[in-house]
Amino acid sequence: MSTTKVKFSSAFWTANVAEMLERTAYYAIFVAITLYLSNILGFNDIEASLISGGFSALMYLLPIFSGAYADKIGYRKSMILAFTLMPIGYLFLGLLPYLFEGLGLVKYADAPEGAAALVANLVTETQYYGLRESNLRWLIIPVLLILIVGGSFIRSIIRASVARETTTENRARGYSLFYMLVNIGAFSGKSIIDPLRGWIGERAYIYVNFISVILCLLALIMVILMYRSVNTAGEGKSIKEVWYGLYKGLTNKRLLCLIFIATGFWMCQQQLYASMPKYVIRMAGESAKPGWIANVNPFVVVLFVNLVTKWMSKYSALTSMVVGMILVPVAALVMSTGNLLGNDPILGMHPITLMLVLGIMLQG
User: What domain range includes position 295?
Assistant: First the structure.
């Protein structure tokens, strides 16, 4: 009996490592996107939530159309296009605050709170001189649109590339590697902001964009030099066919029901980025670490996904869905109780942080 060692093409590894770099870049900024919008650009909580929510929604909607176009022009060209647009978007995210500071609309904090006691003349709190009232801050919208277009290509291409670069014998393992690298990227990205914020204060929300620029440029160089595949050509759907498929899907009542259920879950899940960072910093103090708290989710998923999958394989998909639907509101309830437990540390953590961690573990 002979065994054949399963190998993957260089195109498979290039696409997946590039995806890991992109996920690191994306989550490095997305975990603090509402803090950037409010603390750096001066948007209020409602405006910041609407902008970040629209950014996330379009990022996941546009691949329906960009995927069809990517299929026509080829995956390599699509990746090069995506990894050209994304560093441009991140670069402008980092440069916009300096434009506003140069115009005298704002003066950003130079260091974390408390640093003034060590070094004289440091500004430890951002001071606004008209930015909150200026329409110039809405320049963030075209900048985010650049990221949305670039990111939509990545979301449609990489999964399809995994499918094309694997066979029936190694496809399951290929997707396992893909999701492992995605989670490594997400975990790494969310690990950047907290130590950076502790070092340089609120300017971390600006500087983290330059880290994302470097990561995306590395991915671009990798794709240009190393991505070669004979499987990139394909008959993509026309935009008319995409719209027709979307219409057929939205008129399917069972599919619509599933979409609404999934939407409810993702509304809760996205609070890790929409409201949790502000909540934990305001309630638990500036020393709170929202990036590490958000990392509980991918950590729990990686740790328990195989165990839970094996356990729930005994039950129907409907049963699994019902269990998930029960756990999500229970998790939200657990997370909401932190402010009822006072301010004394529990197990070395602020009660707000502890209950968030426990709730996110249940949610994961």
Answer: 253-364
The whole-angstrom separation of Cα 43 and Cα 52 is: 11
d(CA 17, CA 161): 12
CA distances from 158 to 2, 19, 227, 248, 277 (A): 32, 7, 12, 25, 29
User: With contact defined as beta carbons under 8 Å apart, do 143 and 93 qualify?
Assistant: yes
242 and 265 fall within a common domain: no
pTM over 0.70: yes
Residues 6+ apart with CB under 8 A from 234: 71, 72
In a domain, 357, yes or no: yes
> pLDDT per residue over 237-274, tens digit each?
666 776 777 777 777 777 778 777 777 777 777 776 77
In 3D space, the residue among 165, 131, 60, 114 whose CA is nearest the CA of residue 286 turns out to be: 114
Q: State the residue for tokens 């670039």.
A: 150
Question: How sure is the predictor about 117, in pLDDT bands with cuts at 50, 70 and 90?
Answer: very low
CA 74 to chain centre: 25
Q: Is residue 354 part of a domain?
A: yes
Q: Which amino acid is at 129?
A: Y
Q: Among the residues of the chain, which ranges form H helices?
A: 10-30, 33-35, 45-61, 63-73, 75-102, 140-164, 171-190, 193-200, 204-226, 239-250, 253-269, 271-274, 276-284, 290-294, 296-312, 317-336, 351-363
Length of the chain: 364
Place of tokens 């939530």: 49
DSSP secondary structure of 302-359: HHHHHHHHHHHTTS-HHHHHHHHHHHHHHHHHHHHTGGGS-SS-BTTB-HHHHHHHHH
Q: Are 196 and 207 in contact (CB under 8 A)?
A: yes
Torsion, CA 213, CA 214, CA 219, CA 223, rounded to 10: 100
